[in-house]
Design brief:
3 helices; mainly beta; Thioestr_dom; HotDog_dom_sf; globular; 278 residues; hydrolase
Length: 278
């Protein structure tokens, strides 16, 4: 039986990130949060064969965070500390909507944890997920308004167009993240779900390009993200991807998003499996 915690309201905020990634209003009931996202051409891989699995990053971050925030203390808000995603099915190009649900599992002191699932509108399980949130003192919710209208203009036309390879050396890849002000969260820093999305994309590109004469196609099996300090959107952050291991069937890639001053904002570990039949 799920443990029940005292609940606080978490009003939905539609920022430029939610608009760009097709996030529908996050609905909260008790300690459970739920939302859907609409997919589009912006989420497709370059060859059009499927959707970037990391495109779910904003949905996963928002829903798991909202769930934890329902159990925050008085005069508290929270920030992402860790996000985990385990993928079970690829997101196909013909999928139009996916749904995420999460619930609070534990709250103690300044920390909270939630877990949940991402499913296709057909009910197919896409991923199991979790987030650890660090609470901090705050007089009021940063979600002071509903944010942008649903028909506002989006900044995102293609995930691929925002990531440029600038250095390649053996197992090491370095990418320029072409930042946009619309990548900010309500606190003004790089949205954790955006960080996850582009870390996954960088890891997959690194894994696929490091095979030499064996250019296998890979899909992420799991993503583990740690948020070390606020991500700075001003300027162009860099993403490094180091291929720790690569065989014909499995690859493990370590990623960092580096702020303009060179300090790491995130640390990620992405495990990828060969695409069946590729």
């Amino acid at each position: 039986m799920q443990e029940l915690f005292p609940t606080h309201p978490v009003p939905f905020y539609r920022g430029p990130v939610e608009l760009a990634f097709g996030i529908q209003p996050v609905m909260v009931e008790g300690n459970t949060a739920r939302a859907a996202m609409c997919l589009g051409p912006w989420a497709l891989r370059e060859d059009g064969s499927g959707v970037h699995q990391g495109a779910t990053g904003v949905l996963v971050d928002d829903v798991t965070a909202y769930a934890v925030l329902t159990a925050r203390g008085d005069d508290q808000w929270g920030v992402s500390s860790q996000i985990s995603v385990d993928f079970h099915s690829p997101i196909r190009a013909d999928m139009r909507q996916i749904v995420c649900t999460a619930q609070v599992d534990h709250v103690a002191g300044d920390w909270g944890f939630s877990s949940g699932r991402v499913v296709a509108d057909s009910g197919e399980l896409i991923a199991t997920i979790g987030q650890r949130v660090k609470f901090f003192p705050s007089d009021e919710s940063p979600h002071r308004t509903a944010g942008l209208p649903a028909d506002a203009t989006t900044w995102l036309t293609s995930l691929d167009s925002h990531l440029e390879l600038i250095r390649q050396d053996g197992t090491h890849r370095e990418f320029l993240l072409r930042a946009d002000p619309g990548m900010r969260n309500v606190l003004g820093t790089l949205h954790g779900g955006v960080s996850l999305a582009f870390s996954e994309l960088a890891a997959r590109r690194a894994a696929e390009s490091s095979g030499g004469s064996s250019p296998e196609k890979f899909l992420p099996a799991s993503i583990r993200m740690s948020y070390l300090r606020p991500g700075i959107v001003d300027g162009n952050p860099r993403i490094t991807a180091e291929v720790i291991h690569r065989s014909r069937t499995v690859a493990t890639v370590e990623t960092h998003i580096l702020n303009p001053d060179g300090k790491a904002a995130t640390h990620g570990v992405v495990t990828l499996h060969k695409v069946q039949g590729a």
